[in-house]
TrEMBL record:
One of its GO terms (biological process) is carbohydrate metabolic process. One of its GO terms (cellular component) is cytosol. Gene3D superfamilies: 2.70.98.10, alpha-1,2-mannosidase (1.20.1050.60), alpha-1,2-mannosidases domains (1.20.1610.10), GH92 mannosidase domain (3.30.2080.10). Residues 323-786 form the Glycosyl hydrolase family domain. It comes from the Bacteria. Residues 52-317 form the Glycosyl hydrolase family 92 N-terminal domain. Pfam families: Glyco_hydro_92 (PF07971), Glyco_hydro_92N (PF17678). The lineage of its organism: Bacteria, Pseudomonadati, Pseudomonadota, Gammaproteobacteria, Alteromonadales. InterPro entries: 6-hairpin_glycosidase_sf (IPR008928), GH-type_carb-bd (IPR014718), GH92_a_mannosidase_put (IPR005887), GH92_N (IPR041371), Glyco_hydro_92 (IPR012939), PNGase (IPR050883). This is Alpha-1,2-mannosidase family protein. One of its GO terms (molecular function) is peptide-N4-(N-acetyl-beta-glucosaminyl)asparagine amidase activity.
Amino acid sequence: MKYLSNDMSTLKKTSRDWALNTVAVISLLTAMPMLTHAEESSAIQVNDVTQWVDPFIGTGGDGHTFPGAVVPFGMVQLSPDTAAVSRGSDPQSEIYKHSAGYHYDDKTITGFSHTHFSGTGHSDLGDLLIMPMTGKAHVEAGSETDPDSGYRSRFNHNAEKASPGYYSVELSDYKIKAELTTTARTGMHRYTFKENEQAHVLLDLTASIYNFKNKVIWSDVRVIDNQTLLAYRSTNGWAKQRDMYFAIKFSRPFDSIELINQDNSRYRCNGCLTKKGSKPSTIVNSAIQYTAGKAIKVLTHFKDANTEPLMVKVGLSAVSRKNALENLITENPGWDFDDVKLQAKKQWQEQLSVVQAKGKKSEKRQLYTALYHALQAPSIYQDVNGQYRGVDGEIHQADGFENYTLFSLWDTYRALHPLLTYIAPDKVPNMINSMLAHYQQSYDNMLPIWSFQAHETWTMIGYHAVSVIADAYLKGIRDFDSELALKAMTDTANNPKYDAIPEYIKRGYVPMDKLSESVSITLEYAYNDYTIARMAEAMGKKYIAKTFYQRAQSYKNLFDPSVGFMRGKNSEGVWNPDFDAEDAKLMGPFTEGNSFQYTFYVPHDVNTLIDLIGGDKAFEERLDLLFNKELSHEKIKEHEDIAGLIGQYAHGNEPSHHIAYLYNYAGKPWRTQERIRQIMDTLSSDQPDGLAGNDDVGQMSAWYVFSAMGFYPVAPGDLSYAIGAPQLPEISLNLANGKTFTVKANKLSKKNKFIKSARLNGKPLNRSFITHDDIINGGTLTFVMSNIPNKHWGIETKNRPTSMSTH
């Protein structure tokens, strides 16, 4: 209860004290000159790549993305909620569908909240829901079947728009046009009322995106003047006791305000505020200018609503109300909505322009939207003054780095983080330094596993932060303390309290009688250990490298040659008697998958895995069986995440993402080319349901970007990329070192999906992989495509991707 007790002492201050303490800040807020809307559109390049981004892609089906406004890596994700969970409700059947707060199939909107996950399979956030209304003022959301019973409004997709940094929708029931835009730490709303009815704006501090009742631990609201509020709430969701502070500013004074405490009583505050023009600190009847509890809502009322648009700005901070105000003042001091929108678009144009592509409209829409999703997280989690809340719950001052949060590492180590080393390399050291800060603040001496907003959720398995760090270090990104990083990596990998690590070290595998998901955990530990060995070797730490190279071979201990699959084993070394290669039981030997999929999870040593399975031909046959053997729903019914099926292959879930590229290792690269096109054509599109499963904080999108270019990092940290088949005629990476790496696919068509020949910088390329050096040194990779597979290209052993055993 440390956070709560600390905040309660703050709550003892009177409203007048708060007004006096903030008067200087508020005066600055109101006195600062408005931003002029200069002719900045010309600053955006003629080649406007933002036009190809459609934020609605992934909002249908199980993509779990949101359509609202955000800037690259922004702390604020201001987006509509179509099924926000309010206090006392518990819609278990719908919460998975609404992990991002919004689903394209819904017909009503409950409001606009300021924080959202993109593409997760779990839910939280939804901080500070705001909803404009006309006519009767409601304080409850109502239901989708009866929207008139609450503040919820119907809407139509024909009156809804979204682009990078901007979202708008017509709230049909109220005839209000709602528009949203953001800076990194602030959200901005613009409401245009089409009829001259009394308008209301609701701030609902009880609304959340989560499936637990009574999520709010504590909240409060303070009225500073007739345009400014300060608010706070602490929530128990996926993250426990998560704090967020808000500074809210209206573009014109409200005529009256109601502070609603559903735990206590409801106050109406007509005329209790000072008149326009008086000092903000001069507050009358201050006893009702503050309320606190677990169920707080605020209604502000405005007469003559249609005289001019009403704007609302919100600054966020995880540290304090003062910092929330400072973030608002610093990043968004004026009231020029269109200029803030333009600045957001300029940020996206700059970030997205790292990739230049040629192709059909639908192809560019998919590519640039995937890139857009890949550039949203990890996100900034630090105020403009450098302060942030650490995983220890204390307030820290960032020293030499910008703090980031939202590390969905079981998902994102695979493709997202390797992609960021090319498209946002300046952000990578900040992310790694944030991981190291997490390690230093952690009571468990651990790097993050699945963390967000100063909380470790311990979700998923492995310790994949080590892969992210090693991959960056080996690529020459070293703006962090490498000695500290290696210590953090080894401390994490040797932590006796985490997921049966002592058993793993002792036996070379995790026994299934000691821990569920034991096979998956063993395999992922082995890969993680390989990346530690790679980094230690590069740093000249021979003993550490030798130790972890040995541990990286632990996967062999769970390969059962009698069945030809990875199989669970108990402490006595006895194989799982109930083995079923297709079974994906919840809390069984595998994590969100089965043995068909996880047998191929030896990304760092595929060549040895091929030998274990029986050689190239047997390996190819096993891959074919994976893609061709239908997976019964009964086998996966306990896992919503296993989706996007082609046989046993599940593209909607991460354990399958590298598998299509493994034909290369068996000397059959044309089979990889065939499979990649099959996945692209059947499991992705430029429509709202265009993702085969959760985007998982950008991992699915990063897979698409790499695969569209024609290569993929099977084992990050290996620094090689297995070649697949390019999906666009030309894609260029504009690298931070000033060089450009271009992939051209001549004669590419629907039928011409096979590589006939390849050239790198004009010279024949006969290997079915490229390296990091090939990319970072710039140049041109040219493919000639054909409708007939070239069964001679890339087949020789020397031309296949390398593995740990062949380095």
